[in-house]
Amino acid sequence: MEQIKAIKEGNQQVFKQVFDQYHQQIFGFIVQRTKSEYIAQEVTQLTFIKFWKQREILSERLQIQIQLFGIARQVMIDILRKEATRFKYEGDMAETPFTDSLIDAIESKDLLQLMERDIEKMPKMRRMVFELSRKQGLSHKEIAQIFSITPKAVEQHIGKALLQLKQHLYSIML
C-alpha cells in the first residue's frame, strides 16, 4: 500500500517500478483474451496512462495489481468496442477475429456488473483469491504463495465464490 500512496503523491520513480513489475503480466493477460499482440500493446500502454492519470483516486485498501488489472480489463473492452465499430463501418465485420466475443461481452455487460457487485460483497479473502484467479489468471499455487495458504485452501475459496455467484445468478433468472 506504500506504492499506492507514493503514486498518489506523484512519485514517478515508484510508478516506473510498478510499470516494470506489472507490464509483462498485463500484456500477457490481454494477449490471452484477445489473441492479438497489437491490441495487447495498446491496452497495456493505455492502462498505465489511465492508471497514472487516475492516481489521485486510487484506493489504498485494494492491492495495486487488482486496480491495474481492473483498469486493463476496462481499457480492453473499450478498445474492442471501438475496433468492432470501425470494422462495422468499413464493411469488414466478418474479418475481425474478436467481433463475436465483443458482441457477447457487450450483451452481457449488465450481467458482468451484477457479478462485480456480488464479488465485492464476498468476504475479503474469498474475493481477493477469486479475483487473482479469475481476473489475473494466477494459478492456485501462485495465489497460495501470495497469501501463505495451501493450494487446497485456494481451491476452496474459489469453489465457494463460484457457488455464491451461481446461486445469485440462478435466483435472478427465476
Report on this model:
The protein is mostly helical and 174 residues long. The protein has two domains: 1-107, Orthogonal Bundle (Rna Polymerase Sigma Factor, Chain: A), CATH 1.10.1740; 111-174, Winged helix-like DNA-binding domain superfamily/Winged helix DNA-binding domain (Arc Repressor Mutant, subunit A). Helix content is 79%, strand content 0%. The longest helix has 27 residues, at 64-90. It is globular.
Record keyword descriptors for this entry.
RNA_pol_sigma70_r2, RNA polymerase sigma factor, 0% strand, Rna Polymerase Sigma Factor, Chain: A, globular, transcription, 9 helices, RNA_pol_sigma_r2, 79% helix, mainly alpha, transcription regulation
Would you kindly provide a brief summary of this structure?
This protein is an all-alpha fold and 174 residues long. The chain contains nine helices and no strands.
Alpha carbon gyration radius: 18 Å
* N-to-C SSE string, H for helix and E for strand: HHHHHHHHH
Percent helix range: over 70%
Q: Kindly report how far apart the N and C termini lie.
A: 42 Å
The major sheet is characterized as: none
Q: What fold name goes in the CATH topology slot of the largest domain?
A: Rna Polymerase Sigma Factor, Chain: A
CATH class annotation of the largest domain: Mainly Alpha
Residue ranges: pLDDT <50 for 5 or more in a row? 92-96
Number of domains: 2
Number of helices: 9
CATH architecture of the largest domain: Orthogonal Bundle
Principal-axes shape call: globular
Number of strands: 0
Strand-residue proportion:
under 5%
| Subunit organisation of the chains | single chain
- Averaging pLDDT over every residue, what do you get? 82
